[in-house]
Design a protein that fits this description.
about 90 residues, two-stranded antiparallel sheet
Length: about 90
């Protein structure tokens, strides 16, 4: 189970992390998340994202996702955030 390429700038880092963890749990740890920059100006405009910030938004998202999948606290906008996978099954 995988995404092809997800336009990272169009998603909240926390929401994306939560959704990715949920899909990974549903897929038995086999979920693959592919990220990309946006390439259509219309998409960025529709979400109110400045195209010049697209690369830095993607770069900021990657450490958040890595931390979440490793079970560590992630820093988003200066706040420490933990996305839990929940309790381990018995």
């Amino acid at each position: 189970m995988a995404t092809d390429r997800l336009a990272a700038s169009l998603h909240s880092p926390i929401r994306l992390a939560e959704d990715a963890i949920a899909l990974d749990l549903l897929g038995g740890g086999r979920f693959i998340l592919g990220l990309s920059l946006c390439y259509r100006r219309e998409e960025l405009d529709g979400f109110g994202v400045d195209p010049s910030t697209d690369p830095e938004r993607l770069e900021a998202l990657v450490p958040v996702l890595r931390a979440v999948f490793a079970g560590r606290t992630a820093s988003v906008a200066g706040l420490g955030v933990v996305v839990s996978r929940g309790p381990s099954p018995p």
